[in-house]
């Protein structure tokens, strides 16, 4: 049985490069558009929309500053 991963965030480490949002939106909608991503990046905040169930953890792969990590 595959273990469900969870996502841990560290908003202080986020540089707001939006790579996570771009890859999330492309993966789920087929377009590079941060507004269509299931992850939301704001100054001092990292949150997820209701569509995100933290299953794919794709955002953790593209976060270069370790603000989003998979556990």
What is this structure's SSE topology?
Elements: E1 7-9, H1 19-29, E2 39-42, E3 45-48, H2 58-62, E4 68-70
Antiparallel strand pairs: 1-4, 2-3
Structure write-up:
With 71 residues, the protein is α+β, with helices and mostly antiparallel strands. It has one domain. Helix content is 23%, strand content 20%. It contains two helices and four strands. The strands form two sheets. It has a two-stranded antiparallel ribbon with strand order 1-4. β2 and β3 form a beta hairpin. The longest helix is centred in the middle third of the chain and has 11 residues. The chain is globular, with a radius of gyration of 11 Å.
The parts where pLDDT drops under 50 for at least 5 residues are: none
Number of helices: 2
Helix content: 10-25%
Strand-residue proportion: 15-25%
| Euclidean distance between termini CA atoms | 17 Å
SS elements, strand count: 4
Summarize the main sheet. 2 strands, antiparallel
How do the helices and strands follow one another from N- to C-terminus?
EHEEHE
Largest sheet: spatial strand order: 1-4
Estimate the global geometry from the Cα principal axes: globular
Mean pLDDT: 91
> Whole-number radius of gyration?
11 Å
Structural class: alpha+beta
Structural domain tally = 1
List keywords for this structure.
2 helices; 4 strands; two-stranded antiparallel ribbon; 71 residues
């Amino acid at each position: 049985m595959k273990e469900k991963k969870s996502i841990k965030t560290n908003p202080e480490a986020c540089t707001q490069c939006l790579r996570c949002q771009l890859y999330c939106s492309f993966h789920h909608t087929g377009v590079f558009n941060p507004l269509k991503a299931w992850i939301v990046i704001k100054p001092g905040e990292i949150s997820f929309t209701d569509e995100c169930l933290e299953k794919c953890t794709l955002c953790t792969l593209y976060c270069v500053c370790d603000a989003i990590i998979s556990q």
